[in-house]
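Sample A.
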Amino acid sequence: MNCPRCHAELPDVAHFCHVCGQDIRSDDLTRRRSFAAKPDEPVASFSLISTIMPRGAVDRPQTYRIGLTISLVVALIAAIFGALPIAILVAAFAIPIVYIVYLYDVNLWDDEPIPVTGFAFGLTGVLTVAFTIVVMLVQRPALPTTAIDGTDLTEGPSVWTFLLVALIVPIVGEAIRQVGPVLLASRPEFDDLMDGLTFGVISGVAYASFDTIVRFWDLLIGGRAETDPGLWMSLIFLHGFVKPLVLGTATGIACAEFSGLGRGYDGFTPRYYRGLVEAVLANIGFWGGLYLFSFVGNPTVSVLLATMWGLLILGILILRVRNVLHAGLMEAALEQSARQAGVGEHGELHFCARCEMPLLDDASFCTACGLAVRTQAKPHRMPVAAGSPPPTPSSAPPTADAADEDANSNPRQDEEGQA
């Protein structure tokens, strides 16, 4: 039995192709019912762990799930009893700590984990503190959380504050979160799509953590609070868990597109700018919703509505991240199959101009999107120095001239050559 996608030879009992991952025993040609990082989940799923922690989704998913649950419970209990410093600190650093532990646990970058993690997390943290302080000095309250922190409900929303919160902060904030991941993903050892996604998540949760610390600094050093515990529980959940996940997944989408498909990082391509626009729009929706919901008369209802709004945006982002990750993992398998088919482990591959998937040896059509290879621009021919050996065969797409020569060749001569 052969795989219909990469033509690899398979045992008769195979369910999935061991080379390209194609589902052999299903009519699901795009494998939408089997997520590449966790096959027992569909691609369209709201599973958080397998989305932002794909390398540990099969071996130890409960470890990270339990860690997040314990930190959430500790923060909420502290908020119930009015111990706001403990609640804010736990909520601000729970997800970053669990995520950094995940990176070390799966040994993602065994050669230099500390510099990479520190650069992605620390650089974003420093820039976030400086930016948030400036914003809060320009307009107070700069980023309102509820009506209890100074928002004047009698005057209604301010145009300037709305533009600051729903436009300037999302755009500048996303630019800050892109700096570290883009610098790291541009290095040859970190140009994989999964690396870009991970860098983006780290940067996003780092921004959320330090943003929360700066904005709640007065409450952090103020000790106990006698306000409604239900309000603080909702507030802690919103800013300590919903916000970092929204920012992390949004930034991860753009950074994954920067790493892109195929060999090396794609860089500042239209796909990256599309991912960046998606991230900015998600941030605009999140921060703008938080500001508008802050004018609801009841503070607790205000935060609950803002939390539900944030969870809605988070759900959309999770679905988008899973699609990006699934496509990247399937692409990596197809690239490997292309190398095995014709050019060897270190050979030069050629990629489809439309979907950037690798082309199989002597391919006339892209196996992923169906584009006719002959419609692509001809590859530049490198000059061969005198006395150098002839170039080795590669998976270069057949040009129109080459195809015409093959079509006009003498079949009898071919038969004699084969004999």
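Sample B, a different protein:
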Amino acid sequence: MSATWNVDEFVKAAAVTVDELAGYVDESQRGLAPVLRRTPPAELAERLGLYSWIRTGGMTPDSYRDFLYDYLNEGTRLHHPAYLAHQVAPPDFPAALADFVHGAANNVMSIYEMGASAATVEFAVIRWMLGKVGFGAGGGGVLTHGGSLANLTALLAARARTAPEAWTDGVPPDLVLLAPPSAHYSLTRAAGILGMGARNVVPLPVDDLGRIDVARLPEVLDPARRPIALVADACATGTGLYDDLRGIGEFCAAHHIWFHVDGTHGASALLSDNHQHLLDGIELADSVVWDAHKMLRTSGVVAAVLTRREADLDAAFQQEAAYLFYGDQGFDQLRRTVEGTKAELGLKVFLNLAWRGERGMGDYVAAQYATAHRFWELAVSRPGFECPYEPESNIVCFRYGTGDQAALREQLMAEGSFHLSSTEIDGARHLRVTVMAPATDDRTLESLLDRIAETRPAATGH
């Protein structure tokens, strides 16, 4: 059997893919199927015929259609109006086209010669993002596969500034990372990977909702410890609340501390005229992380690492590889990332922008923030519902009754009616709504509140 493509077969299979995906998205957006299914893995593997296909092969466009239908039907429908769980976008179709292009062309472009157009597109996207956060012509950036890698890369750059000898000599014992308890788990994980140890992540003073208390920041300063960075949330993963970036940035500047803004979710508010004030002071940061697979509606995963000074990003990694690093490397990005092989990530962001424009992307952000605020208005007007804060983004936390909130969430997921997440605020478990799907409307929100109020007493405490 030839290893070259059978182009006719590809065309047929691609048509099947487009047809099935179009039906899947349409059905999902109209809420005509359960928002998620969680068939046990053994049963699902049997239903999909996984091990038989692996052993024997022989799939054709016709049998592929049957497989793809079942595969999509058993997943989680991010385009569904009742998808309200995690900070993962229902991707816009231009980003999906970029995935299709990359799947065929596979221009892995950490080095320019492996994908000149892909690298150039990413460079243009990075310059656009740098402008949006206010870093200007002197800034640098790179796209990575996800916010966890992006945070790690930014902290490597911060460590290089504070302790440049750490790469070759090991991590000095006096290094610490300053971060609020609400910081994403990837920050603590990065401290472990960097060799600092999770115990050297110093918690910042916060208010009852987990926001950094700027007035109390001097409490964490210790002349015997050197902070590689101070992390602020824009916005916090759990609550969707923004830290006071300007106040924190001015504190960091006064004390010569690297200021890192984790804007993975909330930096996209820069595109909304009504919400960009939430990022006031972001231009004071030394580094910013901004995920596109959240509010810029690309498929997973695309995250930007942005630094105010380009040289800081270049200092993050120090390596030698004679088969890669030599001569004039132009736009090569390999020295700036963990990944040696990197997908055409910039194309996803670019095509979404090329189709929708900055205004269209900003309108999406504003619409999801507005829908979340509408949910808050509806919830606080009903008996039994409690919200600890007015939302600033598309994330709302709430409780219903005094019973087991996790059990309530589990019931909704088991019946496939709504997909929510949950978090803890001030030691209490809360339900958590993250409005991501454009199809989510007032009818969805009212139905969710009705369904919660109808749940069994064991779940609500009533």
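Observation for Sample B: The two ends are 66 Å apart (CA to CA).
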